[in-house]
Amino acid sequence: MNKAELIKEWQKAAEKKIPGGLGLEKHGILLETLCDVIIAELLGGGEVTLPGLGKLKVKKTVAREGRNPRTGAALTIAARRKAVFTESKNLKEALNA
Predict the structure, then answer these.
(1) Which of 1, 10, 67, 70 has its CA 20 to 30 A from that of 21?
(2) What is the rounded (10 degree) CA torsion for 32, 33, 35, 41?
């Protein structure tokens, strides 16, 4: 599902709960704003709980040795931070039901 499809599905679902709906453009703005808020929180080192879905948080990795898959030459992979997602118990059960 791409961004446009996500916004359309979100609009359809919202129209069932909000009489008259918000319109496709407003849903697009809300999605972009939500993503901006999540990114800002993760950049600040925090974590974001998505109810019923799971949790996003930042994980630090340490530097390690690796190999170039083409040449086999040894190289050092730098330490970095990455976003990780942990699924909620409900989502995990639903996926494996």
Answers:
(1) 1
(2) 160
Residue 41 CA to residue 83 CA, distance in Å, equals 11
Q: Is the pLDDT of residue 1 over 80?
A: yes
Question: How far from the centroid of its chain's Cα atoms is residue 7's Cα?
Answer: 15
Contacts of 88 (CB under 8 A, 6+ apart): 52, 53, 54, 55
Sequence-separated (6 or more) residues with CB below 8 Å from residue 84: 56, 57, 58, 59
Beta-carbon-side half-sphere exposure of residue 97 (alpha carbons within 13 Å): 7
DSSP result, 21-86: ---HHHHHHHHHHHHHHHHHHHHTT-EEEETTTEEEEEEEE--EEEE-TTT--EEEEPPEEEEEEE
